Amino acid sequence: MVQRTRFDDNECPVARSVDAIGDWWSLLIVRDAFDGSRRFGEFQRSLGVAKNILASRLRALVAGGVLEVVPASDGSAYNEYVPTAKGRDLFPVIVALRQWGEAHFFDPEEPHSDLVDRRHGRPLRPLEVRAADGRRVGPEGTQVHKVGEAGGE
């Protein structure tokens, strides 16, 4: 069996984040948790993923502190998976992926699901990256200071 490359001790925050999430199934599980899925069966029906893969990804997300297992909200014997504070901090990542997908993988007239503000029922504004002074910045307006470089972490 091929050993997966680990990045949990890498100096790059992106590499560590990718290592923590693991794969696309994990991001889709987190997406579904934001959409209200709580139980194993709900995730399985929504995603159509094999039960063994789902169980493995849920265990990893719990072990990584992204989801936590809590008693069922209806008092039944089941457990539910809910995002932790760490997991809720993934919300902007999910929104960014959604907005990127809407912009680049759908024809203008092609229907797709919409993420809307519950209070007003309107679509969210596109996410923007802003400097400390409020300016919008893109990749050309940023630079990474690597560990050990002047001004680095």
Secondary structure topology:
Blueprint lengths: L12 H9 L2 H11 L5 H8 L3 H13 L3 E5 L7 E5 L1 H4 L2 H14 L49
Antiparallel strand pairs: 1-2
Explain this structure:
The chain is mainly α and 153 residues long. The chain has one domain: Arc Repressor Mutant, subunit A (Orthogonal Bundle), CATH 1.10.10.10. 39% of the residues lie in helices and 7% in strands. Strands 1-2 form a two-stranded antiparallel sheet. The model has no long low-confidence stretch (mean pLDDT 91).
Which bin fits the share of residues in helices? 25-40%
Largest sheet descriptor? 2 strands, antiparallel
Contiguous uncertain segments of 5+ residues? none
Counting DSSP H or I runs of 4 or more residues, the number of helices is 6
Q: Architecture, CATH level 2?
A: Orthogonal Bundle
Average pLDDT score? 91
- Look at the structure and give the CATH class: Mainly Alpha
How big is the Rg?
A: 18 Å
Strand order of the largest sheet: 1-2
| Number of separate strands | 2
Distance between the termini: 36 Å
Helix-strand topology string:
HHHHEEHH
Number of domains: 1
Brief sketch in words of this structure:
The chain has 153 residues and is mainly alpha-helical. 39% of the residues lie in helices and 7% in strands. A two-stranded antiparallel sheet has the order 1-2.
What attributes characterize this protein structure?
single chain, 153 residues, mainly alpha, Arc Repressor Mutant, subunit A, two-stranded antiparallel sheet, 6 helices, 2 strands, 39% helix
